[in-house]
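Inverse folding, one chain.
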């Protein structure tokens, strides 16, 4: 077990006090509004600070968990041991560079989509309503409405846990359905290079309004969730299979399969992570029993699960 007082002392040497939260409830930092406490919740503002945090991790033998905007995750009721390194507002920026755009990993996807539209740049319309950070979106190769991050990302700067900086071109990123190389190489995305094309501002705005309206009509945005709960199985739609199994509105504790869209598990009444996990397992079991398809969670489980 690591020495918490030593970890805090070392964190205070490289970050200011406002960047360090101790015993921080993760329910405040997850779109599911679920999760126990993190021992340390830190918010770096530069690649150098990220390197310093990883150095402390090695010196003190303390685990580090990296988060973006807290979407697409389920944090354990038992919390997260060690350091949670959050790429939030201090790592949020959009910097135009010639025909490219450099974006900090903590930048909210919707903000980039909106900025692109205002500057008559097309390619990011699909991301207008995805509630995640750009770093998290690259990690998962997030997508919607026939768009994916792999279509616009041309480079990534990442840091390894031993503090080395890596630069990747588009063809090195290993993009596939809800997958990137960063799920395999244990490196942390810090900055993303996007390539967007000039477009017609009215057409871009119209497309974004259409996507936003579709989300409002079809998705349960009125309740906390992690977004789409299951990956799309080949040849099927997860929500359709769940609905055909009669599970719309099915509840365990405060967790519910949304009656509005069966592909979403929502937190309707102070759900615990245990409620959500049990619900996911029961949905998997029943869908597999009826349709012989084993659904795979798109949501990442983070923390000390039993």
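Residues assigned per position:
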């Amino acid at each position: 077990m690591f020495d918490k007082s030593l970890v805090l002392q070392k964190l205070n040497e490289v970050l200011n006090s406002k960047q360090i939260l101790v015993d921080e409830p993760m329910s405040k930092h997850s779109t599911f509004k679920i999760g126990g406490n993190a021992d340390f919740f830190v918010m770096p503002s530069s690649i150098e600070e990220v390197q310093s945090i990883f150095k402390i991790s090695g010196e003190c033998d303390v685990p580090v968990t990296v988060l973006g905007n807290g979407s697409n995750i389920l944090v354990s009721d038992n919390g997260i041991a060690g350091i949670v390194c959050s790429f939030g507002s201090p790592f949020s920026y959009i910097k135009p560079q010639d025909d490219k755009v450099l974006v900090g990993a903590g930048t909210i996807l919707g903000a980039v989509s909106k900025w692109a539209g205002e500057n008559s740049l097309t390619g990011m319309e699909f991301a207008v309503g995805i509630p995640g950070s750009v770093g998290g979106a690259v990690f998962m190769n997030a997508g919607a409405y026939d768009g994916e991050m792999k279509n616009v990302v041309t480079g990534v700067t990442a840091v390894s846990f031993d503090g080395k900086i890596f630069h990747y071109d588009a063809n090195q990123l290993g993009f596939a359905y809800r997958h990137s190389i960063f799920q395999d190489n244990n490196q942390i995305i810090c900055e993303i290079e996007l390539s967007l094309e000039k477009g017609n501002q009215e057409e871009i705005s119209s497309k974004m309004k259409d996507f936003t309206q579709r989300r409002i009509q079809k998705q349960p945005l009125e309740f906390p969730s992690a977004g789409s709960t299951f990956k799309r199985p080949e040849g099927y739609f997860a929500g359709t299979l769940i609905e055909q199994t009669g599970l719309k509105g099915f509840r365990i504790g405060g967790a519910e399969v949304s009656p509005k869209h069966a592909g979403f598990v929502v937190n309707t009444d102070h759900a615990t992570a245990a409620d959500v996990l049990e619900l996911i397992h029961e949905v998997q079991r029943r869908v597999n029993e009826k349709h012989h398809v084993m659904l795979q969670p798109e949501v990442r489980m983070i923390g000390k699960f039993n």
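The CA atoms of residues 147 and 201 lie 18 Å apart. The two ends are 18 Å apart (CA to CA).
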